Amino acid sequence: MQKNNSIWQFFSSVKLALVILILIAVTSIIGTVIPQKEPASFYVSNYGPEMAQIFTVLDIPDMYNSWWFLALLFLLSFNLVICSIDRFPGVWKQIKSDELTVPESRLQKMANRFDWKSSEDASKTLSRLSSKLKEKGWNAQTREIDGATLLFSQKGHWSRTGVYMVHASILIIFIGAIIGSLGGFKGSVMIPETMERNKIFLFDGKGTRELGFTVRCNNFFMELYPNGMPKEYTSSLTVLENGKEILTKKIEVNSPLTYKGITFYQSSYEPYQDFLITVTKPTDASTKTFITPFQNQVAWEEENLKFGVLNAKAIGQSIVSSKLWFTDNQEKATTLWIDNGKTVTIKRESGDYQVSAKQMYATGLQVAKDPGVWWVYIGCGLMLLGLYVAFFMSHRRIWLLVKPSGNRSEVLFTGSANKNRTGFESSFDELKELLQADSSDTSGSLGSA
Fold it and tell me: For residue 206, is it within any domain?
């Protein structure tokens, strides 16, 4: 009934799938060539007001979220489902079919066919040949048919499902994308060193979002090229919940931090004119960090200390060393140059202070949550498996018909493959030589259909 239904035939058509895939490919090229999610003025200035109006009507600036692009994806998914429902039962029937019911007349018509007579009786021939097949990984089933014995073995029968694995993988990827779109988010946050944030700014001006926990930037480090350009930058981040430190990780561009499904990527930085001065007391080795404005004095009143940065040397916008002024109000003040982030010892009668100074930065983080990402990974893995099965595996079948002929026996050896028939012919010839090897009468004939 379904096959006679024109609507069913339309949606189960392979031609429809090809047309949809071509349309998706063409629109994807358009979405790549035309910049996405730019302000309206950008499209007016670059493409003219009339074309910009057309872009707006067709949602070209946000093409991958447009109703018509999503409709193409839905139509492709629907087509894959209908195609699978229409064709898979026949494939399943082939996989589960009883191949021991194949009549001898059909075996005689197969392209890969070889027959010979053996000087052994049928039972010995059958035992010897089935053992040789088993040695090569062909575990045969047997059945008595009209006084003869038919052996059947197969490999790769599940390879017929490869194309349906690919169908399923595409649907799983789409499901993952939908889950990620509905339950995920993307945004950014700038966290100055020593400070904490518990919310981010969502992209596309969608406001802010609470993280449900707090992230602190412990420190930011940047390595420079000789010309002052950034070579590498990293951040040390700590996740806190209810004031308790949960984990700390050093992140860089290709090594993000993930917590509760939310991933923080190192993406940018922002330099300040302030400095971070860290002082370690000699008495109990306790440490405290102070945010110190350039050429301003800061006091650690409990320790009766005062310090500040008098001058600085920079390459580009990055300060590489600073001139520190330090006093405990008991001895003459100390001034010295400190390389960015290095620690020096300042001697005092009360003990030696360990002091470091560095330019203060804010680390720029891209933040993303995608609960559908594992669905996408599973779908991609299934697609690779399905493509491998569909293109590099085949359903190979062999039959051996052993018939008694007095004190001797007659053997008919046949086989077929649904793909890579040239490769199967080579394997068939090897098996033929193996099966004939110990026969006292190797005269035979190679049939052709």
Answer: yes
Query: How many domains would you assign to the chain?
Result: 3
Positive or negative: CA dihedral 375, 378, 384, 386 = negative
What rounded mean pLDDT belongs to the chain?
Answer: 89
Q: What is residue 255's three-state secondary structure?
A: strand
Give CA separation, 190 vs 223, 237, 289, 366, 408, in Å: 20, 12, 20, 9, 88
Residue 130 and residue 208 in one domain: no
**Do 13 and 128 fall within a single domain?**
no
pLDDT value at position 449? 38
Q: Has residue 51 been placed in a domain?
A: yes
pLDDT band of 318, cuts 50, 70, 90: confident
Instruction: Verify that 204 and 326 share a domain, yes or no.
Output: yes
Q: Bridge-partner residues for 326, per DSSP?
A: 307, 334
Residue span of the structural domain in which 210 resides: 185-369
Q: What is the DSSP string of 352-416?
A: EEEEEEEEEEEEEEEEEE-TTHHHHHHHHHHHHHHHHHHHH---EEEEEEEEEETTEEEEEEEEE
CATH code at 115? 3.30.310.80
The dihedral through the CA atoms of 295, 301, 302, 304 has a sign that is positive
Same domain, 279 and 362: yes
Domain assignment present for residue 53? The answer is yes
Q: Distance of alpha carbon 435 from its chain centroid, rounded?
A: 47
Q: Who contacts 196 (Cβ-Cβ below 8 Å, separation ≥6)?
A: 214, 215, 216, 217, 240
Say what the pTM is: 0.72
- Domain membership of residue 176 (yes or no) is no
For 266, the enclosing helix (H) or strand (E) is strand 262-280
Residue with tokens 């490769």: 423
Mark whether 305 and 279 lie in a shared domain: yes
State the pLDDT at residue 441.
53
Q: Which residue has the tokens 């707090």?
A: 214
Burial 176-187 (b: 16+ CB within 10 A, else e): bbebbeeebbbb
Contact 398, 414 (CB under 8 A): yes
Determine the average pLDDT of the residues in 377-402: 94
pLDDT above 90 coverage of the chain, percent: 61
How far apart CA 186 and CA 345 sit, in angstroms, is 45
Question: Which pLDDT band, with edges at 50, 70 and 90, does 284 fall under?
Answer: confident
Angle in degrees, 0-180, between the axes of helices 421-436 and 122-135, rounded to the nearest 10 = 130
Quick: pLDDT tens for 190-226: 999 999 999 999 987 789 999 999 999 999 998 888 7
Is residue 120 within 8 A of residue 402, CB to CB? The reply is: no
CA angle, 333 then 336 then 338, to 5°: 135
Amino acid at 275: F
